[in-house]
Write a structure and sequence with these properties.
230 residues; 23% helix; elongated; four-stranded antiparallel β-sheet; binds 2-acetamido-2-deoxy-beta-D-glucopyranose; 4 helices; six-stranded antiparallel β-sheet; alpha+beta; 34% strand
């Protein structure tokens, strides 16, 4: 193990950045917003949406989680071609309640069951109540964050969890890798290779340099784990 934290990789957290609502105007009449999410050293971004203060990203950003006490920090920026990108507010949220719920065995409970409710308060950035729900065979959490350090704006997110144990792993990881590897046919004997390659290319593009190697190592460690448990 290159780092002791790699031994404790808990799973992957997929954050769907759904939309921004009533974001701040930073150019003449509108803004070209994008979202940056940071957790520890990992940093992921959405694409830029031109001239829209109510952008719909519907974009999935996936973090590897080894320390659920680290919050996720979200920032919104206005893309400017010739000058530095302007700040359009920030927020942060804890992933611990979600990670705890997601790692419990809920198979078999009715769809729509509310596992936990989180209320907005002075310490968090929730704009409204956020529920952790068992939905369509998974634990999901929708949340609306009110942006700070800006005159207005909210961002809607959905959290999903990808466990790294058991045989489901391979298929869930393929689910991440597949949309990005186009028409490449994945044959079982190349599964391991394809997984490593497509994960490293898709995910590393989005991750910051320093977390890149960590993620690759983590992914390889995970493969080992999956093969052992199968
Ligand atoms: C969560 O948000 C998504 C996207 O807005 C929506 O389609 C879904 O129905 C919501 N799920 C729950 C359980 O509220």
């Amino acid at each position: 193990m290159a780092s002791s934290s790699l031994g404790h990789l808990l799973g992957l957290l997929r954050v769907r950045v759904v939309r921004g609502v009533n974001l701040a105007v930073r150019d003449v009449r509108s803004s070209d917003p994008y979202v940056v999410l940071k957790m520890g050293k990992q940093k992921l971004k959405t694409r830029i949406i031109r001239k829209n203060v109510n952008p719909e990203w519907h974009e999935d950003l996936t973090f590897s989680v080894d320390d659920p006490t680290l919050p996720i920090k979200l920032s919104v920026f206005d893309h400017d071609t010739f000058t530095l990108d302007d700040n359009m507010g920030d927020a942060e949220f804890d992933i611990k309640p979600f990670v705890e719920a997601a790692r419990m065995p809920f198979e078999g409970i009715p769809d729509g069951t509310i596992i936990r409710k989180l209320e907005p308060n002075r310490q968090n950035c929730l704009a409204e109540e956020s529920c952790i729900v068992w939905y369509d065979g998974k634990v999901v959490q929708n949340m609306t964050l009110r942006l700070r350090n800006v005159e207005c704006g909210e961002v809607e997110l959905q959290l999903q969890w990808i466990n790294l144990h058991g045989s489901k792993l391979i298929w869930r990881m393929l689910d991440i890798a597949m949309p990005h590897c186009g028409g490449i046919c994945i044959c079982p004997c190349y599964l391991f290779m394809t997984l490593s390659l497509s994960l490293s290319t898709t995910v590393s593009n989005a991750l910051q340099r320093q977390s890149h190697t960590e993620f690759l190592l983590a992914t390889q460690a995970t493969h080992g784990e999956a093969l052992e448990s199968n």
